[in-house]
């Protein structure tokens, strides 16, 4: 009569040994298994915990009843109940999965509230969902709103992989889209090689440095900027901040000067990536100051006032006016009296004025550029204002090395301002993320300290730019395309409206595919007239040779059209 009880005891002991795992030992030691603990040995010495003893007692009693002739009704009922519970659980799981499958749309990527709750609660996610295809978003809503800086970058990348070269690739694409100046690249490369050969790399060039630029580089940059800011002093050591490109400077300025939803006024036709430069961090809203060809694309007071009132009506308190001097894309240089007039209007409205003067040393020979700094210095003299901080808190000059100096890859932008709070904002935090390479600062300090070479470079660069512009005028005459008369910079505003068939974008794409010539569409510049194109005549290798090649291709394109 003891045989069944012995069987039950043996079975229970085996179960206890089988369930003896390191986890039990870890629980016994407070949930943490310390290094060197022998959990298995502890379990062999004390194989049964309280729960196991309770189970053993229950199993023994049931088996004892069977052995004494009592029907095993409870055992049978228990097994049936267990099977029903398991079956019910499985059916519930199947029902949930089936409901998820038929209730979700394959084309929808937006989870409902219930599924989002499960996914955001780790334990519920594991319990409820092992087959669901719903996943958290891969990027934030803010990140998903970021747009390309330009709408034509894909075409630029394609063309830049097969660029024209008069000797090595005469059938390549003539890329005249991105505002870069290659006319002096060889001379600049030679100068940099000379600097490297004649000077050791100082230890500070390998360290972290001043967020706003090293002192000696600030002095060198300020000295270079005095080539066009001739009549106004620049205390570069106190009021100049250097960052990784003019775009970086602009993005930081918008963050520090404007609040979300503030209005940004920029001229049109214009450089539309300013919307991104000044909006990606500052979250400003752009309103265009539309200019007219009959006024030489110089903003009139009525144009400024119209944009201001549209910004107010849209619920965007106007905060910043941006002027590009010389203008992009027209090549217009604003006369001194117009600079005074536009700045005075903005100050009366309580606006910040950002004068982007990154093309200031690319004016044609004999053409003078009036800086906003010059205008403000003259204003301070007339009004008897502070000579040292003549810019005040609301006028700022932005420049850099990407255009005049053909060094867009060096990433050097400059901010000249007397707004000490703005300088502190850049110096205390914002500028840390956009510092100029120490090596770059060291190299360009030596370059700009050679005053004789710098003066030669500026004059030779102006001559070559004007020479290429004149060549462009001649080749466009061959296909009867008027060219708006520019005063400088490295691009021209051309009127292809006589060739419109499928809109400006259609014409632009036709020129790219048929003539292998890549311009900037006038629509990308918020142009005032359909059919306008911006042509960067300083980008392709070869200078005037490249412009003449463009003329041959455009003539062939015109003949093939007729």
Description:
Residues 1-74 and 93-128 have low confidence and may be disordered. It is globular, with a radius of gyration of 37 Å. Helix 2 (22-28) crosses helix 3 (39-45), helix 16 (336-348) crosses helix 17 (372-383) and helix 20 (451-477) runs parallel beside helix 22. The relative contact order is 0.11. By secondary structure, the protein is an alpha/beta fold. Helix content is 48%, strand content 10%.
Helix % is: 40-55%
Q: Helices and strands: which structural class?
A: alpha/beta
| Measured distance between first and last alpha carbons | 114 Å
Q: Strand tally, please?
A: 12
Mean pLDDT: 81
The shape is globular
The number of helical segments is 22
Q: Approximately how much beta-strand content do the residues carry?
A: 5-15%
Strand order, sheet with most strands: 2-8-7-6-5-3-4
Q: Give me the Rg, rounded.
A: 37 Å
